[in-house]
Each structure stands twice: as C-alpha cells, then as structure tokens.
Write a structure and sequence with these properties.
Layout (H helix, E strand, L loop, with lengths): L3 E4 L3 E5 L9 H5 L19 H8 L7 E5 L13 E4 L5 E11 L4 E10 L14 H4 L24 E5 L5 E10 L5 E10 L14 H5 L5
Parallel strand pairs: 4-8, 5-7
Antiparallel strand pairs: 1-2, 2-3, 4-5, 5-6, 7-8, 8-9
C-alpha cells in the first residue's frame, strides 16, 4: 500500500496505513487535524504546523510523519535508542534505527516503530494489532537481568536484524524499559523474542525452534 500524503500550505502529513495500530495519539492530540469521521481524515491546515509536528512525533508506530516548509521543524531522532514493552502489546522502538533481513535487505529506516512480539502479525516484524486476536497475555513486566547494564555505544544507528524464523537481533546502543518504566537492559547487543513463546520475554530463549516458528 502506498504511503498517503495530505498536503497543506505549510506542512504535509504522511500516513502509512500498514503501520498504524490506532494508538490514537494523533486523534487525542489534535482532533481538529486528525478526524477519522471526516473525509479526508487529515486536515493539515486546521492547526499550526508546529503543533501538528509535535503531535505526529508522539505517534509510537511511525505510521505518521511530516514534511514542513519550515526546516526548523524537521523531525530529529531521539538522542538515544529506547525500546519500551507495551503490556500485552508490541515493542515500541524510538531513536535512529534500521530494520534489515539477514541478507541485508532494508525493511525500514526510521525514528519510530512498533515491533510485533506475539508472533501473529501479518506484517512482521511490525505490529498489526494481532495481539488482540490471539489474546496475547504477557504483561511486559520483566525484571532487570544480569545483562541490564553493559558498556554503551556512543554513536551510530541501531541495527534491528530480522533473523529467519527466529528472534530480532539488535546491535547498537539500546535501553529497554518494561511496561512499568523500569530499565531492564542497557547495552549494545541483544536478541528479542518475536514468536510469542519465550519464557524470558522480551528476550529470546530458543522457543521459536521448539514451536516451529516459520513466518518467513
């Protein structure tokens, strides 16, 4: 599906419906701009560009982005890469990152994304709200582990490698917080479960092999 563009006088809103899981940050933050009952549902001239940009930056999936005439409003990645576990939901990633396959095919280069951890998404490795359909029950309250603090990388883009029929291999500076905002990992390399079966969520424990996880 092609990314949709909603052009205004001073800002253009970009929307990728494939990545939207209806977190409603946009609707709640600027209802005069983002109105699902209207056609078109985005009115980029209904608020100041600065206000629209601020709301779009709150979109946790990266489904919304923008292009502003004022270059000072250009979106910049967060200074550090953070991944937050949503209770019974996805992994919310923010920062500067690239998602690739094992053979280096780039799937996404962005500043915000929601990654599937229930194993059921039809848009893997991204979330599509399938955790609701499969009643994914993990509360996301994992406690800090032995790898909670390691020497941190000082720069560079985070690499998220979608391993074939296996976990997400993250390489680069990263802080992981659980659903209660505790830091449970801070380091430069880890493997995260995406099959939904790990007993050590959000980390991989090899369960993808036990259940025959074959999404690719």
């Amino acid at each position: 599906m092609k990314q949709q563009e909603y052009k205004g006088k001073a800002i253009t809103v970009l929307y990728d419906a494939r990545r939207c899981i209806h977190a409603k940050e946009c609707v709640h933050g600027a209802p005069e701009v983002f109105n699902p009952a209207a056609k078109p549902w985005v009115g980029p001239d209904n608020a100041e560009p600065k206000a629209i940009a601020a709301v779009i930056k709150r979109c946790p999936t990266g489904a919304l982005h923008y292009q502003a005439a004022d270059s000072s409003l250009a979106e910049r990645a967060d200074p550090s890469n953070t991944l937050t576990i949503a209770s019974r939901g996805p992994l919310y990633l923010r920062g500067s990152f690239v998602v690739v396959t094992e053979d280096e095919k780039e799937l996404l280069s962005d500043t915000r994304a929601a990654l599937c951890r229930c194993g059921a998404s039809k848009n893997k490795p991204f979330c599509d709200n399938s955790h609701f359909a499969v009643a994914f029950a993990d509360p996301g309250t994992a406690a800090p582990g032995v790898d909670a603090r390691k020497e941190m990388a000082t720069s560079g883009k985070l690499r998220v490698v979608r391993t074939a029929n296996g976990p997400l291999h993250l390489q680069g500076q990263l802080t992981i917080r659980n659903a209660t905002d505790q830091v449970i990992f801070e380091g430069t390399e880890t493997w995260l479960c995406r099959c939904g079966a790990s007993g050590s969520k959000p980390f991989c424990d090899g369960s993808h092999q036990r259940i025959g996880f074959q999404p690719e």
